[in-house]
Amino acid sequence: MTWTLYGRSLASRFLLGTAGYPSPDVLRQAIHASGARVLTVGLKRTLAAAGDNGFVAAIRDTLRQSGGQLLPNTAGCRTAQEAVTLAHMARELYDTTWIKLEVVGDEYTLQPDPWELVSAAEQLVKDGFDVFPYCTDDLVTCRRLLDVGCQVLMPWGAPIGSGQGLLNPFALRTLRERLPGVPLIVDAGIGAPSHAAQAMELGFDGVLLNSAVAQAGDPVRMAAAFGQAIAAGRLGFEAGVMARQDMAVASTPVGGRPFLIS
Amino acid sequence: MTWTLYGRSLASRFLLGTAGYPSPDVLRQAIHASGARVLTVGLKRTLAAAGDNGFVAAIRDTLRQSGGQLLPNTAGCRTAQEAVTLAHMARELYDTTWIKLEVVGDEYTLQPDPWELVSAAEQLVKDGFDVFPYCTDDLVTCRRLLDVGCQVLMPWGAPIGSGQGLLNPFALRTLRERLPGVPLIVDAGIGAPSHAAQAMELGFDGVLLNSAVAQAGDPVRMAAAFGQAIAAGRLGFEAGVMARQDMAVASTPVGGRPFLIS
Amino acid sequence: MTWTLYGRSLASRFLLGTAGYPSPDVLRQAIHASGARVLTVGLKRTLAAAGDNGFVAAIRDTLRQSGGQLLPNTAGCRTAQEAVTLAHMARELYDTTWIKLEVVGDEYTLQPDPWELVSAAEQLVKDGFDVFPYCTDDLVTCRRLLDVGCQVLMPWGAPIGSGQGLLNPFALRTLRERLPGVPLIVDAGIGAPSHAAQAMELGFDGVLLNSAVAQAGDPVRMAAAFGQAIAAGRLGFEAGVMARQDMAVASTPVGGRPFLIS
Amino acid sequence: MTWTLYGRSLASRFLLGTAGYPSPDVLRQAIHASGARVLTVGLKRTLAAAGDNGFVAAIRDTLRQSGGQLLPNTAGCRTAQEAVTLAHMARELYDTTWIKLEVVGDEYTLQPDPWELVSAAEQLVKDGFDVFPYCTDDLVTCRRLLDVGCQVLMPWGAPIGSGQGLLNPFALRTLRERLPGVPLIVDAGIGAPSHAAQAMELGFDGVLLNSAVAQAGDPVRMAAAFGQAIAAGRLGFEAGVMARQDMAVASTPVGGRPFLIS
Questions:
Q1: Which chain C residues have a beta carbon less than 8 Å from that of D172?
Q2: In CATH, A3-239 is 3.20.20.70
Q3: Does A262 score more than 50 pLDDT?
Q4: Which chains pack against D, by 3+ Cβ pairs within 8 A?
């Protein structure tokens, strides 16, 4: 049941963001309930740790207890250079080569900028980082990220914080089909547990989300719900989902039943 | 976490059908993996028990072990009278007042016939049955079923065995909104764990399915997947799913970010 | 290009409702722009003709000019008996055997009540009416309406006035496939011209709508838009829409292009 | 009703591709039936004109008669350099500065390569071309194309020849909202007239398609159907489509009707 990201074996396919929780204690409980072993954290917040009020401590504590892995991110960066600089600071601060690479391409949807992203990824790979690029669902962009040395891809399902689910299942299916063997994680846009299960049923390897838990009525229970849904979707994928039947069009002579289940 | 159907407390919101499994042993394992405590069985098959090859025994054994509940069905009946007759036979045979009432209205889609269904339900309630009607997602039909004494409704998501998921979420949301307090179970059409989670997130009380497990590549693992997905969807519903944001239309001045998660 | 309803040849597949327009003059212009030759009118409004302010006159005038046909409706009736009574009054008043039969089954969605609808249809057919039942998209209900003598069916696409388009294309496709030769008209729920075109592409014979024109920013231009969209959808259906290709899954060896269009 | 592309006023919002028709005569009739005034042509085919069998002559003839405009394309090019070279040849051959810029990024889906596309566009704008880039629906990529001097954008609806319609309406709405004033044309993926109407209702300025006409059962009638659907969608957009109402959730007290249309 374990899987591997950049050589590290993980017991859960759920990657959880740590921003926007009501309190450090709710965050702590939500992490426990989620079962997630990879937690993202925005460096900019940490740098302002004087006003952090205990959130970073909650993240560190739970990681220590679970043996989990921190995944610093470059949220808020607008250029490759800015992201590269922040990534290096994150490596110093957190003592990890893992970096979730975000380069914002639009102030409103916060979508990735493919050009700046590929450029930053290329540099960071050269600098020895294990890069997790937050990217769009474009096949050519994804291939470029692989070409510069990324070993994991994290395409969006929908804009960050929108909760709209998988806006373009076709594009996601295309990525899965055309990039066999590459760990693919849907990152951003997931709103409900069923969205996460759907991503896993498409053959994705993991799900990263934040708002859907942090903004839920009860973040702790929602974290548990997503943990179960991601496991369920993966299990369903592995067990082989049945083929759909149309049934609007009678392909067999009417009078014969399509099948008998009694 | 328990809920109640006709006065009986149940630990799982998953109701599993028992037709079409590769072998009695696979059925047995799938039931265990599912966590389901209510199992449906088609009387017509049981009546041909000489050729049953052990499936009914598997059902009875697992129910005995789990303390679960049998839900005989009238699958294959085409008229109210036929269904009423079969229901009475089922009560004799299985010693239960529970009956899943199916009256086929179309030979190809196997959809319910609303008229025959209401008529049969009315008679069976008078005869002391606890009726679980397999019905369409039509609000007026559902109200008629309640009017004649049904205390549970089981609208379809899609045709039996189609695996298409929830074809008309609007109709299902309408039922949930307009029939508060009535136990509602999506029955038929579910193909993947994400479909089941979606039904639960809509506020439905349970999910009944059969083909999606029996026809899976690995029915036992798929049974477990559905068990988890249904629990996840319920938990998500209770935890309060976040509100969706459009984000295609900039409702705030561009330049300001819609929110900040770092 | 003409088609036939109850023996009457019609030059347009657009049936237009006449309620809720800003003024009689806008209604008059919208009718002209639509090209519709069948206009529905609610009897209850006509009966209050003292306060009608010219709407009925606008309808009558345009019908006289176009050689069109009035289709009185029983909107607002809640029982079969009420609808039958109103239909007889409509026949007296408008001197036509055509009746659009509406029997409201829910005060909020205004959905049809299948039971009262079939009952009223049966009576009205016996009384010599040409019945146009506004019905749900349920196949069994539709067959019952045919059994009692209806020669046209008008299933909903979505609730009246919702503008949601075709909520359940599966159900509509099923009706078209299973009821060949029966004139089928989508009535209610259409919001945009593309919705109407889609209905026609499914093989439906016509579209009836009201709110989408009456509530448009510019009802007259919107009437023209729907007239064109319905004609376009029909023409597309007759011309044979191309088969969809998935293309997410490479079914041919990658490296070969699926086809060449240059 | 006219609109403008690169300073040229056009009477139709339909741009038609000319590949894959059964015969030159069918192509000729389809062009006439479509009302299109802009026709795309693949240079590679023309260069092999010895085997052209009259298709190019049909295109030239109809353009001469209608006063339309040729839009050569670079279909089949895989790099910016290849596309730039071909564009220059097209300018020589057809004596027009217009060029539909295609740079294939994937052999199977034939999707655009954003990097090569922007690079080629930049060069061609410098060389004095009026560039029509066939692009993905990515906002950042679209902005880059504008930045290098494109004055028109042609995002895809779905892969070329797939007929799947608008796979990601969210992305298209985002483009329309965020790029006001830029002529936007949906190019590729349209299968049915309703898809084209939907694109226009979103506020797009035009539709370019080829396979949906060329592969139709009757290309000539289908060309007419699309011409009407595109006009209908535009008219609907201008007339102001009604707001959708949910109606699954009773926001007003039940018992009151949401509105009355009789």
A1: none
A2: yes
A3: no
A4: A, B, C
When the pLDDT of each residue in chain C is averaged and rounded to a whole number, the result is: 91
- pLDDT, one tens digit per residue, over C148-194 is 999 999 999 999 999 999 999 999 999 999 999 999 999 999 999 99
C-alpha separations of A23 from A28, A30, A34 in Å: 9, 11, 16
CA distance A110 to A121: 18
Convert the pLDDT of each residue in D152-202 to its tens digit: 999 999 999 999 999 999 999 999 999 999 999 999 999 999 999 999 999
Task: Give me the catalytic one of D100, D144, D195, D234.
Answer: D100
- Per-residue pLDDT reduced to its tens digit, A100-135: 999 999 989 999 999 999 999 999 999 999 999 999
Is C126 an active-site residue?
no
Percent of chain A predicted with pLDDT > 90: 79
- Residue labelled with tokens 């006509």: C46
- pLDDT tens, residue by residue, C188-221: 999 999 999 999 999 999 999 999 999 999 999 9
Rounded CA gap, C199 and D149, in Å? 41
DSSP-assigned letters across all residues of A14-36: EEEE--S-S-HHHHHHHHHHH--
C154-155 and C130-135 as β-strands: parallel, antiparallel, unpaired?
A: parallel
- DSSP secondary structure string, A101-152? E--BS-TTT--B-HHHHHHHHHHHHHTT-EEEEEE-S-HHHHHHHHHTT-S-
Across the interface, do A235 and B225 touch by the CB < 8 Å criterion? yes
Pick the residue of C118, C170, C179 with the most B CBs within 10 A to test the interface with B by mutation.
C170
Cα D19-D23-D26 angle, rounded to 5 deg: 90
Give CA–CA dist A131/A90, Å, rounded: 13
DSSP code of residue A207: E
Nearest 5°: CA angle at B117, between B111 and B122? Answer: 165
Please state the ipTM of this predicted complex: 0.91
Does residue A253 carry a pLDDT above 80? no
Whole-angstrom distance, CA of residue D151 vs CA of residue D6:
7
Strand, coil or helix: B20: coil
Q: What is the mean pLDDT of residues A186-213?
A: 97
Q: CB within 8 A of C261, min separation 6: which ones? A: D17, D19, D20, D42, D75, D160, D161, D210, D211, D214
Which residues of chain A neighbour B202 with C-beta distances below 8 Å? Answer: none
**Contacts with C161 (C-beta within 8 Å, 6 or more apart), sequence order:** C110, C188, C211, C215, D245, D258, D259, D261
pLDDT at residue B54, rounded to an integer: 84
The helix (run of H) or strand (run of E) holding residue D85 is helix D80-94
Break chain C into its structural domains and give their ranges. 3-239
